[in-house]
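Appendix B. One record, verbatim.
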Amino acid sequence: MAKLTSSSFVVLLLATLLAYLQGASTSNSDEIILTRSQNDEFYADPAANSRVVNRNTGFPDLLNAGIDDLQGGLSRGEFTSVELVEAYLGRIDEVNINGPGLRAVLETSPAALREAKRLDEERAQGKSRGPLHGVPILVKDNVATDAELGMNTTAGSYTLLNSIVPGDSPSIHTLRKAGAIILGKANMSVWAQARGLVNQTQGFSPRGGFGTSAYWPAGNPCSSSSGSAVAVAAGLATASVGSQTSGSIICPASYNNIVGIKPTIGLISRNGVIPISFTQDSAGPFARTVKDVAHLLTAMAYRGSDPGDNATWTQPPEVAKGIDYAAASHFHAKKQKPLAGMRLGYSGEQFFANQSIQSYDDSVAAAYTRSIQVLRDQGAEMVEVTLECIGDQTDPNQTACYNATDITQTALWQTEMRYGLEHYIAGLKEVPSAVYDLGGIVYFGIANPELELPGNQTDQGYLTQALMTRPNATVDAYREYGFRLSREMGIGGALNKYGVQAIVSPSGGDWPLYPIADRAQYPVISVPMGFYSNTTEPGADFPYYPYPDAPTGLSFTSRKWTEPLLLQIAHAYEQATHVRWSRRPYPAAEAKSQIKAIVPPAN
């Protein structure tokens, strides 16, 4: 791989900006009509638009089509899963490496068309596996997919290239059993953003290069599940699988104007997922709507106890039996006040007290204030809350409490990462690089800098520190201390103190709540909330965030196993706002390939 020098990066950025400007001057007859409100913001006008139907063809617009939209066309025989796969492959070809070079997708499956044909044949025989039958999705490159699909599982690193996994991870096995087609592997931050201490660019992997946002040239896609989120935002698949240790589902969902849920630890088996921390790791789905992530969550959830992941052994009986999360979340209930009777907490003035710490833009704060009112309008009683372990962030004692979780977290992760990675590699059938432990991973980077450490992406400090760790009683104590800070003194304590069912907060900022939820092993979901103003100055460092009209999200979190509640709240907010529909990717990043070009003309 060629090194990215400063001069070549400038050329790349100028070319991308030129493509953006050229695309902006091109008419797009399928573009959603936007209405300007009195406060100079844009919103989708439902009277003027059909969000998911291409007005020229009558087929679903693949930029915004959801699972139900695709199932409708498939069940009516308007197109096949083979044609759908071909259309998505065309979109990937347009904008992934070509065009703006989003680099959201590492590789596509040579078996995808074969799988689609098999599912089409089942449909022709009157069989349906459910809402995911024949729907293509993408999977983050740290989640194992069987060799029969013809793809790698490498966490973005050449170290594991051409290694052979034992088979699909349980979550991929159940997705395929539910009828999902694994279209390809998504790019990610190498080793899930846990390789370096400095100069580890978000969205970069040695195998995939620099992944960027579909909403701004060279925009920051955020965190390690970046490719999974960008692909959904750009319509390269209708949904995808990501993973989160601390924010790697919630932050990309927020930055990319989509929905993402990180479930309770133990709901989805981590077996077959390249690990960082068995205390905090979880896979989870991305999609454009809350209902769609519920469909994926239903399929991904492990039913019962997986011998390969003891966190699943903690499932309550009702969870172990299996839950239809779309049904359990009451999406079909038509109520004027869908949140009536709910009492929700929200982070209030203290959360925004010190702008130098919290660094929320005025437009984000205004969007958050409006969101609180939207939830009130949906019937919820809104209660301002303060977490004991965050409290007033201008108070040094409270700041120290928050920072203490970072100190314990780092020591915990690095110890668990060494054990977890070596255990994962030991389970592989083949490892052509002959790397079998963490020391080998570090040495492979040193020995192959042109592959693993190009340009300024040379730091392996996090891996090196992890190499020095050993499991001991102190690490176990850190785990329990983190639970106490995040549960009793954090989210759990606030839920009890204020008698609320869930807590609402912005998904972004320097002090978001999702790291606390992650340490507590609690579920958290992010939905689109709003956008930065169109006068926002782009961030100083590549990849850039914020930038003009940058998306930002709203999060909901609660205790373990409350996914149906969080989905219900998020769905009510989503249906009242439809924030996502008011922005499309920048013109050069919007693929033009649609199903119409694939489907043969009717006789």
